[in-house]
Amino acid sequence: MTKHNCIVVNLDKCLGCFGCEVACKMENDVALGEHWNKVLLRGPFGDYPNQVRYPLPAMCQQCADAPCVHVCPTGASYRDPDTNIVLINKEICIGCKYCMMACPYGVRDWNVATKTVEKCTLCGQLTARGELPACVKSCAGGARFYGDLDDPTSDVSVELAKYAATDIHTLPNVGNNPSTKYIMTSIHGEWKESE
Amino acid sequence: MSVQWSLVLFTAIAGTGAWMFACTGIAELKGLGKKTAVPTTIVALILAIAGGFASLSHLSHPERVFGALGHPTSGIFMEAVLLGLIVLCAIIYLILVKRDAAKSARKLFGVLGIILAVVFTFACGMSYEMSSRAVWNTFTLPFAYLGTAMVSGCAGYLLMTGICKDDIASIETAGNETLLGGIVSVLTAFIYGCVSGAAGGSVAALFWIVVIGCGGIAPIVFGKIAGNNTAKATAYGVIALAGALVGAIAFRAIMWMIGTTVINVFGTVL
Fold first, then answer.
1. DSSP labels for A63-114?
2. Record: contact B60-A116, CB cut-off 8 A
3. What is the pLDDT of residues B86-124, one digit of tens each?
4. What structural domains does chain B harbor?
5. Do B265 and A100 touch (CB under 8 A)?
6. Burial class (CB in 10 A: 0-12, 13-18, 19+), A1
7. Which residues of chain A have pLDDT under 50?
């Protein structure tokens, strides 16, 4: 059965320590100045003393209708038929950067050395042997989860099930239907990415 | 976003070539431009191929470009196929003219040239319609690509009629085409400028002076003058073409300058 693997980030638990960003770089040998995963510090929003800020770790959002896959002229950007994960075959990437233009979130980066586009692979080299992606494994706050959204027993589904629908967010959807979910309750702050 | 000059020059140059061939097709249908037909088609071919090379220079791995043939739905594939068809049409038309073939056959390829110029220049703009970039994601963008390429091609054809010392009727028609192209360019660019905000934002000066002024008003004025004063068609053609090309290039550059994503997490500048 086809899976629907993705990452869920619980921002109520996120420390903003940048550990996921560092772990990603170490595991995937991402060069200095390049990213597959990056933690943005959002805010402060609002007026003193009612101000809110939160860390926003962001990587490929594994869109259900991925525009990067639609625009790729060679099929280098493709969706893995088994895991539903959007991947890049760097051997046939022509470096047109069309996918980088089409990505609504700017979470694809340019590898200067190979002159091809790269992005988060959900650490396929680790998950293929039953391990978790490096960012999930190393998350100090236990804020990151990996698994199949369609499997109710997976880590992501179990974590999402703990929260109301109003506490579960995605980055702005412009028709691409991002799969990555962010959990943030009103106790912690107010989700501002949809504005 | 930084301006992707290879892509800017690709659509501007190849679009100009496509519309120069289209103007040759119009002249063929009207029985005009006999002296201009062959030289203009050769120039159109050169421009189409030069545009293609400009596009290739954007790629970091051009040696893998034939992989695009396996994905017939992408915008790049559409542009490449349409440009290839224009080149093929122009070569066949050249052979037909050189062999003094039947007029009906020449007219057929003239009509094909017109249709392909419209579709190609429209498709070039359509490739950039993507939901990730709100100011690109409007149907007015491909029309503006079409309009700004049309005026460049018409002005280029006017220049060729002057250089080749074609008959007065041919130059008058070329002048009127340039005037019409200028009107289409002004209208389509203006509508896109209003929809995208380019007409009023930080690039407003560039938009009004270069895109509308040089790229639209100048060809309208000098196309009209050239139609009335055919003896100086070359000089007026040079001014109209220079203005139209600068306008077409500026329009495309502006599109890149204002194109921002929903969120730019990595802060990557293309």
1. -TT-HHHHH-SSS-EEE-TTT--EEE-TTT-----HHHHH-TT---EEETTT
2. yes
3. 999 999 999 999 999 999 999 999 999 999 999 999 999
4. 5-258 (1.20.1630.10)
5. no
6. exposed
7. none
Distance from CA of B65 to the nearest CA of A (A): 6
pLDDT for the residue numbered A195: 66
Instruction: Determine, yes or no, domain membership for A34.
Output: yes
* Domain of A45, in residue numbers: 5-62+120-183
The ipTM assigned to this model is: 0.89
Q: A74 touching B, CB under 8 A?
A: yes
Q: What is the pLDDT of residue A189?
A: 84
Q: What CATH number is given to the structural domain containing A160?
A: 3.30.70.20
A73 CB near a chain B CB, below 8 Å? yes
Please state whether the peptide bond connecting residue A49 to the residue before it is cis, i.e. omega within 30 degrees of 0: yes
pLDDT digits (tens, 9 = 90+) for B188-197: 999 999 999 9
For A116-127, write each residue's pLDDT tens digit. Answer: 999 999 999 999
Nearest CA in chain B to A175: B131
Question: What tokens appear for B81 in the block?
Answer: 């196929």
Looking at beta carbons, which residues of chain B come within 8 Å of A174?
131-132, 134, 262
Residue A90, domain member (yes or no): no
- Could you report the per-residue pLDDT of B208-240, keeping only the tens digit for each? 999 999 999 999 999 999 999 999 999 999 999
Residue A6, Ramachandran bin (φ over 0: left; ψ between -120 and 50: alpha; else beta): beta
Q: How confident is the model at residue B129 (pLDDT cuts 50, 70, 90)?
A: very high
Question: Is A95 within the bounds of a domain?
Answer: no
Q: Write the pLDDT tens digit of every residue in B45-56.
A: 999 999 999 999
Q: How many CB pairs under 8 A join A and B?
A: 109
Q: What is the structure's pLDDT at A52?
A: 87
Q: What tens digit of pLDDT does each residue of A131-165 get? A: 999 999 999 999 999 999 999 999 999 999 999 99
Please report where in the chains the tokens 């190979």 appear, as a residue: A114
* A116 and chain B in contact, CB less than 8 A: yes
Q: Which residues of A touch B130 (CB under 8 A)?
A: 67, 71, 101-102
B260 at interface of A, judged by CB pairs closer than 8 A? no
Q: How many structural domains are present in chain A?
A: 1
Question: What is the residue type of B40?
Answer: T
Most A CBs within 10 Å, among B60, B73, B138, to test the A interface? B60
| pLDDT score of B184 | 98
Q: Which of B70, B262, B270 sits opposite A74 (nearest CB)?
A: B70
Cα(B19)–Cα(B25) distance, integer angstroms: 9
- Using the 8-state DSSP alphabet, how is residue A50 labeled? S
